[in-house]
Automatic annotation (TrEMBL):
It comes from Psophocarpus tetragonolobus. The keyword Oxidoreductase applies. Pfam families: Aldedh. This is Aldehyde dehydrogenase. Belongs to the aldehyde dehydrogenase family. Residues 17-434 form the Aldehyde dehydrogenase domain. It catalyses: an aldehyde + NAD(+) + H2O = a carboxylate + NADH + 2 H(+). The active site is at E208, C246. GO terms for molecular function: aldehyde dehydrogenase (NAD+) activity.
Length: 488
């Protein structure tokens, strides 16, 4: 079955159909129609898989995708067009251009936490760039996976785009095939498996991984600034798939003297946003499954970690719900501070000085996203230049995900490669260098037999424009000192 599907895709690609602008446009329009027509079904599937609120579903998945599709449709002609490249003046009567070309048949493996967004966002790039594609959604969000397999496919050309469902086993079977690109979103553990499989055919890969994303909170003096900071932190932790997001705030770094004020406000705003009984409000997603529920429960099992819980901590296993939870200064060697949390537990780590956060961040794997709440320009500059992360956002969180103009991707342990907007198109394209040379001009000193004079002329031509070269050749200008003289 898989063989036949893959043959279909390769045939489609080789027929040249997927390269046509009209095919790309019709598939992008199909994707947009699916999102518009099936909005309710998508929301329902996200509710079923993750208890995700409709507004979150629109904000983080449906809405961002429609926005990306509108941009891709508007920009497709421009993205596809070749771009003139400047050449050195010496290349007389030569022109050059950069021609974007599709890579071929590509594989997209996605994750369960934004099961529609993380599947379709890369697919938009793959299709816009003219590739044939297989999408393998996560088995851990089965309602969304099944919706993509059964409904999305009715909007698309199934000879050029296929959705193949399944878990680790099916994913590995897919990885055994030859691909022209593998785009993977998920854990570093599986990322390693993907990379090893890609080695066989030297397939290029993009790895969108996770890790611990810190939020540094400087002591802010205006009460408005503090309240806005707290609201943004709460939404970036508990209000984004209950913290099950690669760019959710994992933990907060704050000066000791400022911690209690921050905690007091976070508690207040949790209550304002989610009410006395957050579970009842149905605005917080639930944990994806029992396995992840137990994993999160175990993060709190350590005695010292338990003692650090100063708010929340209640868990309803039957309904896979975990209350927004705050921990202050859990041991740094505990799993809650060494592993990605991916859930609604928020450790707050206190420091003597806010500048110490730079060292704290640099001692750990490079984060996918770094958030810094500060008005201090020096601290902002230092954060940009002295730390390494996929992105850094000042005074907000998550926002960078929705920006089509910014590359989204990690560095170091948080992955490599980037996408969103035009970056998605580039990720799935090869940028071919095309040079067109005329026969009309030719320089004798390019060819052997080699003489010192030819070396000097070559050096002159690398260092001067036409006029300079002409003047040197006519003996009206002396070559500069760095041109070698002597014997050969
Ligand atoms: P995962 O690595 O377990 O699964 C991701 C995909 O890989 C799924 O489609 C799954 O079916 C497949 N898979 C699982 N085991 C496999 C195996 N042995 N061989 C081949 N394929 C296999 O990750 P997850 O639990 O879906 O996601 C959680 C992780 O993903 C977190 O670390 C999170 O930070 C990261 N993530 C990153 C981004 C990003 O954009 N950078 C987005 C979402 C999640």
């Amino acid at each position: 079955m898989m063989e036949r599907d893959l043959n279909d895709l390769r045939e489609s690609y080789e027929s040249g159909k997927t390269k046509e602008a009209s095919w790309r446009e019709s598939q992008l329009k199909g994707l947009r129609r699916f999102l518009m027509d099936k909005q309710q079904d998508i929301m329902q599937a996200l509710m079923q898989d993750l208890g995700k609120h409709q507004i979150e579903a629109f904000r983080d998945e449906i809405g961002t995708l429609i926005k990306t599709l509108n941009l891709a449709l508007k920009s497709l002609k421009d993205w596809m067009s070749s771009k003139k490249a400047a050449l050195p003046q010496l290349a007389l009567l030569t022109s050059a251009e950069i021609v974007p070309q599709p890579l071929g048949v590509v594989l997209i493996i996605s994750s369960w936490n934004f099961p529609i967004g993380l599947s379709l966002e890369p697919l938009i790039g793959a299709v816009a760039a003219g590739n044939a594609a297989v999408l393998k959604p996560s088995e851990l969000s089965p309602a969304c996976s099944s919706l993509l397999a059964s409904s999305l496919t009715t909007y698309l050309d199934n000879k050029g785009i296929k959705v193949m469902e399944g878990g680790a086993e099916e994913s590995q079977q897919l990885l055994e095939q030859r691909w022209d690109k593998i785009f993977f979103t998920g854990s570093a553990r599986v990322g390693r498996i993907v990379m090893s499989a890609a080695v066989k055919h030297l397939t290029p890969v993009t790895l969108e991984l996770g890790g611990k994303c810190p939020a540094v909170v400087d002591s802010l003096s205006s009460s408005w600034d503090i309240e806005v900071t707290v609201k943004r932190i709460i939404v970036a932790k508990y209000g984004t798939c209950a913290g099950q997001a690669c760019i959710a705030i994992d933990y907060v770094l704050v000066e000791k003297g400022y911690c209690s004020k921050l905690v007091q406000l976070i508690k207040l705003y949790i209550n304002k946003m989610f009410g006395d009984n957050p579970q009842k409000s149905k605005t917080i997603s639930r944990i994806v499954n029992k396995h992840h529920f137990s994993r999160l429960k175990n993060l709190l099992a350590d005695e010292k970690v338990k003692e650090s819980v100063i708010y929340g901590g209640s868990m309803d296993q039957d309904n896979l719900f975990i209350e927004p939870t705050i921990l202050v200064d859990p041991p740094l060697e505990a799993a809650v501070m060494s592993e990605e949390i991916f859930g609604p537990l928020l450790p707050i780590i206190t420091l003597e000085k806010i500048e110490d956060s730079i060292k704290f961040i640099n001692c750990r794997p490079k984060p996918l996203a770094l958030y810094v709440f500060t008005k201090n320009q020096t601290l902002q500059r230092r954060m940009i230049s002295e730390t390494s992360s996929g992105s850094v956002t000042f005074n907000d969180a998550i926002l960078q995900y929705a920006a089509d103009t910014l590359p989204f991707g990690g560095v170091g342990e948080s992955g490599f490669g980037m996408y969103h907007g035009k970056f998605s198109f580039d990720t799935f394209s090869h940028h071919k260098a095309v040079v067109r040379r005329s026969f009309l001009t030719d320089f004798w000193y390019r060819y052997p037999p080699w003489t010192l004079n030819k070396l000097q002329l070559l050096q002159v031509s690398y260092n001067y424009d036409y006029l300079g070269l002409l003047l040197v050749l006519l003996g009206l200008k002396r070559p500069s000192k760095h041109v070698i003289s002597g014997h050969m």
